[in-house]
Fold these 2 entries.
Entry 1:
Amino acid sequence: MQIQPCGPLRGEITVPGDKSISHRAIMLGALANGTTHITGFLMGDDCLSTIDCFRKMGVQIEITDNEVIVEGVGLHGLCEPEETLYTGNSGTTTRLLCGILAGQPFTATLNGDASIQKRPMGRIIKPLREMGASIEGKNDNYCPLTLYPSELHGIEYRLPVASAQLKSAILLAGLYAEGQTTVIEPAPSRDHTERMFRALGVEIETEGNVITLDPPEDLHAVDIAVPGDISSAAFFLVAGAIVPGSELTIKNVGVNQTRTGILDVLRDMGADITESNFRDDAEPVCDLTVRYSHLHGVEIGGSIIPRLIDELPVIAVAAAFAEGETVIRDAQELKVKESNRIAAMVTELSRAGVDVEETDDGMIIRGGKTPCGASFQTYKDHRIAMSLAVLALAAQTTSRINDPEVVSISYPDFFDTLKALGG
Ligand code: S3P
C-alpha cells in the first residue's frame, strides 16, 4: 500500500470498540448466568478468536448488525472442546483463557499463530501451577499449552511484571479456587477485569496495588457497552498532532485512568488535546479533540509504562517529529508483544532517516527533522503497521507499507477512516 504525505486531517470519527474490554465481555458473558448483550464490540480478528474458542466450548454467541449476544452457561457450564482452541494472534485470548481453563473439569489444548508461539507463557504457567493447576507447555514457556482437570486453591501472588493479562489469568482462575486469591502488581495495569467482575456481582477489592478476589457462587449477566479503544484513537491523536493544520475529534473514547498514559505524554510533548462530553458508567468515556502543535521531546519511564504500553510505537513516531530528545525506558515488555516492538520501531524509524538508538529497555529518539518516506516492514504486527502509516502522512515523500492487512487484528477499517479524514 502506498501512503502519500497529506494536507490537514479534519473531521469527526469514532474508533472501534476497546479490544481488552471486548475480550472480557465474551469471556465473562459466557461464564455468567443469563444473556449478555454487548454493544460496541470490536469485530477484529483477535476478538473473533475469543468468540471462536468459546463457541468450541459450547457457548452460543450470536453476532448481529449492532450487538453480540452471549448466552451464558454459568461458571460450571463450559463443555470439553473437541479440537485445539486456536487463539490466532491474540495474547489476551491465550493468557486469560488459560486462567479459565485451569479451573475446568476437562482437558483442553490452546495454540495460536507463529507470533503467539514465541510469546512467553511461563509467566502464567508458574502462578497457575502454584494454585494447583495441571498445565503443560512447550519447554514450560510456550504454546501449545494443555490444561488438565485439577483442584485449585487461592494464592497470594506478586507479579514480576505489570501485566493485566497475567493479573487477569490469575483472577479468572481464582473464580474456581478454594479461598481468596490476591494479586500484587508492581505498578497498576489496566483494570477492566476487576471492573467487569464488580459489575457482574463478584466480590473483588483493590487497595493500592493489591487486588483480592473472593470466589463467587455465580456471575449475573449484565449488558455491556464497549467504549472506543484509546489504543486505536492513539493513531489519530498522533496524526492530528503531527500533520500541520489538522483538527479532529474522536468520539466516545474509553479514558480509564489505567489506559490514558498516551494523553499525559502527548500533552507533556506540547500537544493540544481537549476532552468533552465526559461520562462515567462501568468505564469512563469522553470525546477527544486534537489540534496540530509543535512537539518537543520528553522522558517516558516508570509507572506510566503499563498505562501506555500498546501506544509506545506511535509515541515513538510523535517523538520523531518532536524537537529534541525523547527517552523511552522501562519498556522491556515491548520485546515480547506481537513483535519485538523496540527492534521493529528502531529499524523502521532508521529507514525513514530518523536519529534513533536502541537501548536495553527502550529507545532514544532525537527528533525534529522531518522523516523521509520509505518502504516499511510491519513484522505482521498491527500496531507497527498503523504507527508507520501515521508517520507516512507527515513524511517528506511517499511511503509503502507491506502487509497493510494486518490492521484487521484490532482495527479493520483503519485505512478507510484515515482516508475519510483526508489522509
Ligand atoms: C492487554 C494487556 C496488555 C496489552 C494487550 C492487552 C489486556 O498486555 O499489551 O494488548 O487486554 O489485558 P500486558 O498487560 O500483558 O502487558
Entry 2:
Amino acid sequence: MATKIKSVFYCQSCGYESSKWMGQCPGCREWNTFVEEVVKPTAGKTAKKAAGISGAGDNKPVKISEVVITDEERFDTHIGELNRVLGGGIVKGSLTLVGGDPGIGKSTLLLQVARLLSKDKRKVLYISGEESLQQIKLRANRIGDFSDDMNLLCETDLGTIEEIIRRQSPDVVIIDSIQTMFNESVSSAPGSVSQVRESTGVLMRIAKQLGISIFIVGHVTKEGTVAGPRVLEHMVDTVLYFEGDRHASYRILRAVKNRFGSTNEIGVFEMRTEGLAEVANPSEFMLEGKPENASGSIVTCSIEGTRPILIEIQALVSHTNFNFPRRQANGTDYNRVNLLMAVLEKRVGLELSSYDAYINLAGGMKLIEPALDLSMCMAIVSSFRNKPILDDCIAFGEVGLSGEVRSVTMPDVRVSEAARLGFKTCIVPKSAEAKLKSAFKDIKIIGVSSVQEAVNIIR
Ligand code: TYD
Ligand code: MG
C-alpha cells in the first residue's frame, strides 16, 4: 500500500497547526503566516525517539524512593556570567537553545565558549550553516588563539552532521543556527516549523544518547520569540535569550527556561572589539553618566535572579499638544506606566491627563519587576513638578491601585547594593523599614506606606 502523504499548515510565527489554510492564526493573531508543509508519516517508535524518549519496550515504572540520583556532570565554561545563567556550568548531555536578534553576538559568545572549552582539553565541534570557514576564522582571530581540540564544520544536512558527531564523539557541539539545518525526512524548506522541530528532535536524541552537550542558535522574530515554533522551547533543556540594545555595548544573557538551575539569573556582557567581556558589577556599569540634581531621575534596584542591579529611571512629563496625551515606556511595561499614572492622578491628585509622559530605563535595559513602581511614580512626579529628588537616593516598592506601597522581595539585598555604591538614602516600603534600619546604620532608611508620602519627599 502506498503511504499516504499528509500535508499540514503551520503558522510560521508560533507553530500553530491546522489541517486547512487560514488567513489569520488563531494562536498568535498574525496574518498570512500559514504555510503548507508535507509531513511524512512517522512510525510510532521514531516519533518517540525524536521526542527524546527511548522507544525500547523494556521500560517499566520504578518506585521514586529507588531512583538513584547521580550528580549531573557539569563543566566549567570559564565564563562566570555564563556559568551563573546555566546554573553552574554546562551539563553533560544537555540541549541548550540560545536565541537572540541577528547581530547581537550569539555566534561570538558561542565561539568564545568553544575556545575556552577546547583550551580545557574538551573536544568541541562548531557547526555553522550560515558562515564559511574563512568568516568564522576571521571572527576567531579577533577573539584569540584556539587549540587543536576545536573543530569547524560548514554543513547544513543533519544526516551528515549526525554521522560526523557519532564518528568523532566530541564533548560539546555548537549548531549555528537551527534555522539553516535541513533534515531529509522532512520535505519543507529549512527554517520552516516542521524542519526546525524535526531537527531539534534529532539533536535532542543525539545529546541524550551520546551524552554530548549541544548548543543550538535560534534567530528570533520581531516579536522576540525564537523564529518558527514555540514548541522548540518545550523540547530543549535550557533556553537562553541574548538581548540588549544594539546601539549600546552591553548584552544581557537571560535564562527563560532551565531544567538544571534557577531560571531568573542573568549574565551581563560588554561587546568589545575583541569579543564579549564579562561585566561583574552591572550596577556600576548601568549608572555611568547619571546626571546630578536633575528632575525626573531616580535610581532603583531590581533583583534579577539572585543579583541586585541598580538602574536609573528617567521620566519626562511635558504639556501635550494633542487631544490624547502621548505615553511611552522604554525598557519597561507600557501598561504598567499607564496604570501608575492613573494611580498618581487619582490618589495624589496630579492632573496628568493633559501631559505627555516618557519613561526610560537608562542604558536600554529591560526590566519589568513590580519593585520599580515606586521609583517610576517618583520620577514622574519629580518631572511634573520640575523638582529634583534627593541626591544619592534610591527607591523601590510595589505600588497598588489604592496608592499603597507594598513590600517586595529581598529588601536587604537591595539596600546593601545601594550602600556599596555610596548611596545615602533609601526610600522603602514601610513594612520593611524597621528591619532595614536595624541592619543598616550608615544609610538613611525612609519607610513610606503610600505614594502620597513618597512624593511628599520631593519638595
Ligand atoms: P555575531 O556573533 O555575528 O552575532 P549573531 O551571531 O548573534 O548574529 O556578532 C555580531 C556583531 O558583533 C557584529 O556586528 C560585530 C560585533 N563584534 C564586535 O563588536 N566585536 C567582536 O570581537 C566580534 C567578533 C563581533
Ligand atoms: Mg551568527
